[in-house]
Amino acid sequence: MNVIVERERPLAELEERIAALRARGTQTAADRSALDDDVRMLEENYRGLLRDLFGNLGAWERVNMARHPKRPIASDYLAAFDQFDELHGDRQFRDDPALVGGFAKLRGRRVMVLAQQKGRDTRENIKRNFGMVSPEGYRKATRLMRLADRFGLPIVTFVDTSGADPGVASEEHGQAEAIASALMALTKVCVPVVASIIGEGGSGGALAIALADRVIMAENAVYSVASPEGCAAILWGDAARAPEAAERLKLTSADLLQFDIVDEVVPEPLGGAHRDAVAFIERLLDAVDLSLRDLERLPAGDLRERRFSKFRRIGRWQEAHVPRVVAVP
Amino acid sequence: MPMPDWLSRLRERDVPAQDAALWIKCPSCGEMLYRKDLAANLSVCSKCQYHFRMSAYDRINSLVDDDFVEIGNEIVPGDPLEWIDKRSYREKLDGDRAKSNLSEAVVTGFGTLDGFAVALGVMDFSFRGGTMGTVVGERIAHLLEEARERRLPCVIFTASGGARMEEGMLALMQMAKTTQAVERFTSAGNLYVSVLTDPTTGGVSASFAFQSDVIIAEARASIGFAGRRVIEQTVRQRLPDNFQTAEFLLERGQIDLVVTRAALRDTLVRILDYAIDRRRTAPLLKAVPEFAF
Predict the structure, then answer these.
(1) Which residue is closest to A171 within chain B, CA to CA?
(2) Which of B179, B256, B245, B221 is nearest to A171 (CA)?
(3) CB distance B180–A312 less than 8 Å?
(4) Does residue B91 share a domain with residue B15?
(5) What confidence tier does B232 reach under pLDDT thresholds 50, 70, 90?
(6) What is the distance between the alpha carbons of residues A288 and A23, in angstroms, rounded to a whole number?
(7) Residue B165 sits in the same domain as residue B251
(8) Chain B residues inside the 8 Å CB shell of A256
(9) Which of A176, A235, A324 sits opposite B165 (nearest CB)?
């Protein structure tokens, strides 16, 4: 059960009571004013409750926020573009509905968009494989990255996946090679690449479309080396210890900003992006738009070099003094 | 006649403790193998051809013409996440250093293979399961950069459980770093050969393992993206025995060659010979002049 959804229950009750009170008819002006006072008091309570519940979220709570069933998903962002014309298929085997891509216009600018698409309900989630991309999806992405590069279209991606699909067919069709090739394609393109982590950024399956000049992250999104469940299973053989793993993995937007893994965090309304989805989506797209404007100002040819140095620097290590070993020990 | 109790107890014991240093049981066929014979046979079971995992330095010794210069070993791990679970990350690293005699999960350097000077990277599963953290990424990138400068071919042996959890996203980002290094190296016209050994999975297979010009896999090595257990849990069915083996991948068109360990060095030399003009091969000393042997 999603801990955020659970926490929202008293809020929903309060919302209902406020709505019921507002709907009530009144006879006199005095009654009206007394009722208004009550509504104001309840609304004050509501704001207080919102602050208490969501004012200071831990890592595991943010994981749940990122997985919230009402959280905006890729299609919600795409709907806010001026235009979008989806292009399908990897030209080899099939079209993967977990990765959506195509020509689009954002604030008048022509772009190529690539997005990991979760579903809104069970039926759609089954069709979209819960946003877990198969090799065909990564190969479609690679194809569209190259297409974008040929026509000078900036690449705009939206990351929202718990990880690459871990199925038998995906292994048979070369999941590792498909991801490795998408990474290689993003390394080679000469156009600006802006990635936005909007929900879950899980592992190599997320990075495959996020090797970008600029990485934007929604405040309550998470981005991690493995899902907390996967990490807990790998290290402790117990997926139930996911909350503990989430705290240790440093997967929140604030953590990743510190490590220079994300460049910008877009703040969310108190209680999460879904509480004011339309405004939040606009804010995130504003950030994408501004990033593209900055990147387009750079002299052509500098982008790849800058992208290289950005990722070349990432990591923390130490230098030891070692005598040069000539013979093999 | 029933076996006396003491005798059956003795027989149940695989190897008397004092002999364990001398003998090892083949996990595949159960044959007791004399460790010195096993080492002489490149850690391959003489009875069933089971390939034991090989340490990085044994591997290097089995390949080079008696000359190897290690580089990048000054790059050693920190503890960026200040990770603690049962033990701290620092303690885990100390334990692995003592146990494996390695400073990290990959050894990088230069050597010659039958006269061909090459850059060589060899991962070792006994250090943190060959996982890629900052140091593995940094050493691989450094190796490819040094090789590119000298226009030497590069051969990388992979063995990895994937990205290193204890370094979090800094570990994942090494996929990006190594990819970029491979791109610069290969687009400058240099040959890159990867040799996938048991096991090659996760972030390593989804980056530099599968970005080479020629992909060789060692016989029966387990290779894939997701771990076998993860897949079994997801699909809730038992997977066929050959699933994610080198042979399975060859059949599915994912790799160029499956080679036994005994044939590996010759295979590499033959590939180098096709891609590189032997007349133009400089001896290692000339190729890497700043390292005096």
Answers:
(1) B224
(2) B245
(3) yes
(4) no
(5) confident
(6) 41
(7) yes
(8) 169
(9) A235
**Among B163, B177, B202, beta carbon nearest to A314:** B177
Asked if A193 has any chain B CB less than 8 Å from its own CB, the reply is no
Q: Are strands B23-25 and A317-319 parallel, antiparallel or unpaired?
A: unpaired
Are B147 and B249 in the same domain? yes
The total domain count for chain B is 2
Question: Could you give the percent of chain B with pLDDT greater than 70?
Answer: 90
Contacts of A11-15 spanning 24+ positions with Cβ under 8 A = A11/A46, A11/A49, A11/A50, A11/A53, A11/A271, A14/A42, A14/A45, A14/A46, A14/A49, A15/A46
**Interface size between A and B, measured as CB pairs under 8 A:** 205
Residue that the structure tokens 């020509």 belong to: A103
What pLDDT was estimated at residue A28? 82
A226 touches chain B (CB under 8 A): yes
Residue B229, C-beta contacts closer than 8 angstroms, at least 6 positions apart = A233
Q: Are residues B90 and B111 in the same domain?
A: yes
Considering the domain architecture, whether residues B99 and B149 belong to the same structural domain is answered as yes
B214 and B73 housed in the same domain: yes
Q: Which of B14, B30, B52 finishes a domain?
A: B52
> pLDDT tens, A144-165?
999 999 999 999 999 999 999 9
Cβ separation A315–B101 shorter than 8 A: no
Residues B135 and B42 in one domain: no
| Position A329 confidence tier, pLDDT thresholds 50, 70, 90 | very low
What amino acid is encoded at B178 in this protein? T
Tell me if B20 is assigned to some domain. yes
The minimum CA-CA distance between A170 and chain B, rounded to whole Å, is 9
The domain that holds B66 is classified in CATH as 3.90.226.10
In a domain, B268, yes or no: yes
- Can you give the residue range of the structural domain that contains B90? 53-287
> What is the predicted pLDDT for the residue at B30?
94
The predicted pLDDT at position A30 comes to: 83
Chain B positions in Cβ-Cβ contact with residue A259 (cut-off 8 Å): 80, 169-170
Q: Give percent above pLDDT 90 in chain B.
A: 80
Q: Which residues of B touch A230 (CB under 8 A)?
A: 230
Question: Is 80 exceeded by the pLDDT of residue A109?
Answer: yes
